[in-house]
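We store chain and fold; thus.
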Amino acid sequence: MTDDTSLADDVVFRPVRSGNAFEDTVARLLQAVRLGIVEPGGALPPERDLAVRFSVSRDTVRDAIRSLSDAGYLVARRGRYGGTFVSDRLPAEGAEAPGAGEPATVVPTAAEIDDVLGLREILEVGAARAAAGRTLSADDRDALWQRMTETSVASAPDYRRLDSRLHLTIGQLVGTPTLVSLMADNRTRVNELLDHIPLLPTNIAHSNEQHEAIVAAILTGNRDGAAQAMSEHLEGSAVLLRGFLA
C-alpha cells in the first residue's frame, strides 16, 4: 500500500552514516520537508523514534530539529497534541539550511548537470516502466491519481514539492525501497538545480499534461508508453536546465 508513512520510511527514516551523524540527520529531515514527504503542518515522529530509525542519539536528533526550527522549517508545539511539526510556511526554495550543503548561489558545472540528469533518466524512466508492469492495488491507484491531481492544481510555491512527491510515489509503486531512496537523493540534487532557474507557467502546464500521460500509462499497464512519456517529461526539464545553466 502506498501512503505518506511508508514513503517516509522508504526515503527518510533509515539509518544515517555514523561519520557525520548531525549533518546527515539534518539533511534527511530537510529532505522529508522539501520533497513533500511530510507536508506543511504535518508531524514528525517523536524524537525517540527518530533516534532509533536514524541510529543516532536523541541529542543528535534534538540538535538537528533545533537547527531546522531556527532556519524556519520546523516548529515545536507543546501540550497534549504537541510534538515537532513542519512549518505551515516554508522558507523559499534555494535558501541555505544548516548541514544542507552548498548555497544555491554556487552555479553548477556542465559536468555536474549531466551527472544529475543522467542518473535521473536511468532511475525514473526505469521506475515508470517497472511501475506500469506491476499489479497495483486500489489504494496504490488512488494514491497515484491523488498525487497527480494535487500537483496539477498546486500553486507556484508548492509546485516543486508536490511534483517531487508524485515522482517518488511512482518509484514507490515498484516495490523496491532502495530505488525510492536513490530517487529521493537524486531529486534533491535536481531541485537544487531547479532553484537556479525561473518557474515558468507554460512549462508547468506542459509538465502537468505529461504527468497525465505518465500516470495513464502506468494505470493501464502500458510499460513502453510509461517509459516513453517519462523520458519525454525528463527531457523537457533537462532542456530548460541546460539552456539556463550550461
Observations:
- The chain is about 65% helix and 5% strand.
- The longest strand covers residues 74-77.
